[in-house]
Write a structure and sequence with these properties.
The structure is a homodimer of 414-residue chains. The first copy, chain A, has 414 residues and is an alpha/beta fold. Chain A has 15 helices and 17 strands. Chain A folds into 3 domains: 168 residues, MoaB/Mog-like domain (Molybdenum Cofactor Biosythetic Enzyme, Chain A); 78 residues, 2-Layer Sandwich (Alpha-Beta Plaits), CATH 3.30.70.2860; 154 residues, Maf protein (Alpha-Beta Complex), CATH 3.90.950. The longest helix of chain A has 22 residues.
Chain lengths: 414, 414
């Protein structure tokens, strides 16, 4: 089955909104064996949307449209798609009652313009919207399908998951199984070099490398009649790649370095506190995002002012007056100081120059020291990150979490 | 001038990578008066890319392609675009030297496959890549233009800004001026209702509303011969909208609620410390992102464990044992406690249940209390946010920063 994704919305053409729906749908469709050949964005314009639908359904079997189901005058997607198939729209009483209930639950009343959200072709299948006022719709004609979904991702995703995906699954007869291998600390072209022989002789599974921010992923994709068959094709290739990248391959599947490290801490009962200066709370925040972290995370100290480094972490005034806050010595004292507060197994610290100002020849913008205290022993690492203020902070945050993982691995903790 | 944006990359079709380039380019092109009619994504496939180029250049004057300029076997964009215009690729010595320099600076050597990045049509204009190995290219033929840019955003954006934008500006004869009004705390359909009369009679400027996460924007777009003329068209509409939304309109232009509030603190010399539990460092981190915040931000205390709330903020054990950490009383004590640490003008606190676990009938997931201490007076606010763990934390973070802004505004501080 071949599908195309059409995003409807002038705000996307004007570059106001970042399109995340296409990314989500493409990923989902690939996972159920539906090939996505094109993705397009078109404005809130009837003529252009009709042209788009025509081109897409000439090439493919399914078109999924997101956006343009709202109550405003610009919202025309459902109307245009029905028109394309020659279907009339009729008022659906049940839909309207659902919309009324949604408003009453929030102590509000719908506006007149909300009524258009309750009109559907009788030939269509109405898809309930559990998170907003706009139901979606599946329309079919002559072996072609148009699926119409709302624009806001938090409404679109559950509607796709709960109603569209099961419907499509009934129509396919093979599956695509993917395995994503996550690599941190190695650049994309070096990754490709390392596995160039595997890439050149690939067939099923296919092998593709992707550079993400601060990490790379290798995606193995196998097509087979069953999940078991597909997994058998993937396993040997995965094993070979694991062998070549060793500890730089930190996880398989959809996860993040923060969640993987949080898991290690929780599973090994390693308590932790974090002292941050330039990263400003980002490291604490990323560990705290992990549900269950409360069993090990004691405190985060964002000691941005030097006064706070002294008062809260016991950093010595002498250190601050001689080598300064951005120094190996300060990073060490911060890590040990924060671990001392609640006698945690681990204390992390960051201190650096996030920019754009504050740099010098000796201590340039991007210079960051990490202190990593683990059960009595402290190491300090020094980096120079590039980028703007946010990027430097972000990279430092990712780095120190990975460095913690590698230090724990040296002690066989995983 | 009419443009289309083509993103080349199978990883986008498979939904592995989120496409942010199209968003960036669309925004930029709109700001210089170039209409974007279509945005498309196509895989690393010569046949489909050629079809795409054909369709697009039938409709429009300019195609901008991103992606597929790397050193790997999948990277074919430049080759295919040159083929489309019937141009041959020739090895460019200067390009190759630049690539060599880039590698040597990092103490590395290029691989054989990097050589293809130095091949260009002699008819083309080579665009230097100041952040990576792949230079871009502008090719023109018979009044049609193809611009080929690298995929990674941090390479693409500067190349567009420094080389493509000036080149395009020389070719247009009118400008589009946009003004973005930022509204927080009002839903999109309510916004449209409030200004429905203005929307219905719009012509130049056009008026469009966009729902972003936790805020909405109203974009006014005027087309004129000069910037001054365009601004004259926008001003009365902007004034009317400001009047209708009052303090819910928090800023004009590209900015964030965090940066606006950070500015207010710095400009008014209001020192601040922040105590966080469920938001985990997000509030501190978002204020610290503002360059210059060091003049007012003293400390962030992520007192995740109750032990830390007691030790660092002086929250009473009695409060924790009776009403618990997620309570009005605890929020108040946290805000006052954190302000006391360095005698700051302002102390903020968050305490709540981020989920997915931890909720009860009485204290559901999403319940968050804010403490806002300003110069001797503390108020507490209570919310119930919906969404997953990250969303609840994120919305709480945005909310408390806006609430601080509104409280300061009540005291005429802005």
């Amino acid at each position: 089955m071949r599908a195309e994704i059409i995003t409807v919305g002038t705000e996307i053409l004007l570059g106001d909104i970042l399109n995340t729906n296409t990314h989500y749908l493409a990923n989902e469709l690939a996972s159920i064996g539906v090939d996505v050949y094109y993705q397009m964005t078109v404005g809130d314009n009837e003529k252009r949307l009709l042209e788009c639908l025509q081109e897409s359904l000439n090439r493919s079997d399914i078109v999924i449209c997101t956006g343009g189901l709202g109550p405003t005058e610009d919202d025309i997607t459902k109307e245009v798609c029905a028109k394309f198939f020659g279907y009339d729209l009729k008022f659906d009483e049940k839909c309207w009652n659902d919309i009324l209930k949604l408003f009453y639950r929030k102590d509000k009343v719908p506006t007149e313009n909300n009524k258009k959200q309750a009109y559907f072709p009788k030939e269509g299948i109405i898809l309930p919207n559990d998170y907003g006022t706009a139901p979606g719709c599946i329309m079919e004609k002559d072996n072609k399908m148009i699926v119409v979904l709302p624009g806001p991702p938090r409404e679109m995703k559950p509607m796709y998951d709960n109603y569209v995906r099961p419907y499509l699954l009934k129509k396919t007869d093979y599956i695509i199984e993917s395995r994503v291998l996550r690599i941190i600390g190695v650049g994309e072209s070096s990754i490709e070099e390392e596995i160039i022989d595997l890439i050149q002789k690939q067939s099923n599974p296919t092998i593709a490398t992707y550079a993400k921010d601060y990490e790379c992923t290798i995606r193995l994709t196998a097509k087979a009649k069953s999940k078991e068959e597909a997994e058998k094709l993937i396993e040997p290739v995965e094993a070979e790649i694991k062998c070549r990248f060793k500890e730089n391959l930190y996880a398989i599947g959809e996860t993040t370095i923060e969640d993987e490290v949080s898991k290690i801490l929780v599973n090994n009962d390693l308590t932790i506190s974090v002292a941050e200066s330039c990263t400003g709370g980002m490291v604490s925040s990323s560990l705290i995002n992990y549900p269950g972290i409360s069993s090990v995370f004691m405190e985060g100290c964002v000691t941005y002012a030097n006064e706070a480094k002294i008062k809260t972490l016991g950093v010595s005034e002498n250190t601050l007056n001689t080598v300064g806050a951005v120094s190996e010595e300060c990073a060490k004292e911060m890590a040990e100081g924060v671990a001392r507060r609640h006698n945690t197994n681990i204390g992390l610290s960051t201190t650096g120059i996030a920019g754009p100002g504050g740099g010098s020849e000796e201590k340039p913008v991007g210079l960051v020291y990490f202190g990593i205290y683990i059960n009595g022993k402290t190491i300090v690492k020094k980096y120079i990150f590039s980028g703007n203020r946010y990027t430097i902070r972000y990279r430092a945050c990712k780095s120190i979490i990975n460095d913690l993982r590698l230090e724990l691995l040296k002690n066989n903790i995983k």
